Amino acid sequence: ILDDSKDNEIESECHDWDAKLRIRYFRNTGPRISASRKLNLAIDKCEGSVVKILCQDDLLGDPSSLKQTVEGLTHGNVWLVSAYAHIDENNMRLGGHTPTLSSRIERKNTIGSHSGLAFLKDQQSQRFDEKLLWRMDCELYRRLFDIYGAPYILLEESVCVRQWSGQSTNTI
């Protein structure tokens, strides 16, 4: 977890979970950084073989989500995108999304949220373009597709993507 919040709430929560989960916590004490930069720093600090992206307002959809993700990244699959549920601020289901491929993924995001993305760290060196604020996920999907081919699409909703007034998509 790479945290650049103004208080210690996230750090405290991470310490509360130390006994159950092996969380690596890093605090950004400098100026706030872009989402692309933050994701890249977090990816670079990962020690495991599988990198699972999960944005701060999203959550895993099922206790078996990580297991399904790891299993999906076997048999030569380098990257994976998963179906996900849209939820509201009260965790009520609003609908769902199943990723599909588009020949112009850099223009029209048919894959969906980068919280549905996972990849093998040692076989994939691509990162989010830090010059981009919008469509950073689409641009990365395009490069991943061009280099590694189509992703494995996990049809189970392994992630819940929160839709709320404060999410980045709704703030500009």
- Unreliable runs, pLDDT <50, ≥5 residues? none
Number of helical regions: 5
Strand content: 15-25%
Straight-line N-to-C gap: 25 Å
Q: Find the structural class using helix and strand composition.
A: alpha/beta
The overall pLDDT average reads 89
Helix content: 25-40%
Largest sheet: 6 strands, mixed
Q: What is the CA-atom radius of gyration, in angstroms?
A: 16 Å
Shape: globular
- Give the ordered list of helices and strands: EHEHEEHEEEHEH
Number of distinct beta strands: 8
Secondary structure layout plus pairing:
Layout: E1 2-3, H1 9-16, E2 26-27, H2 35-45, E3 50-52, E4 59-60, H3 65-72, E5 79-87, E6 93-97, E7 117-120, H4 136-148, E8 152-162, H5 168-171
Parallel strand pairs: 1-2, 5-8
Antiparallel strand pairs: 3-7, 4-8, 5-6, 5-7
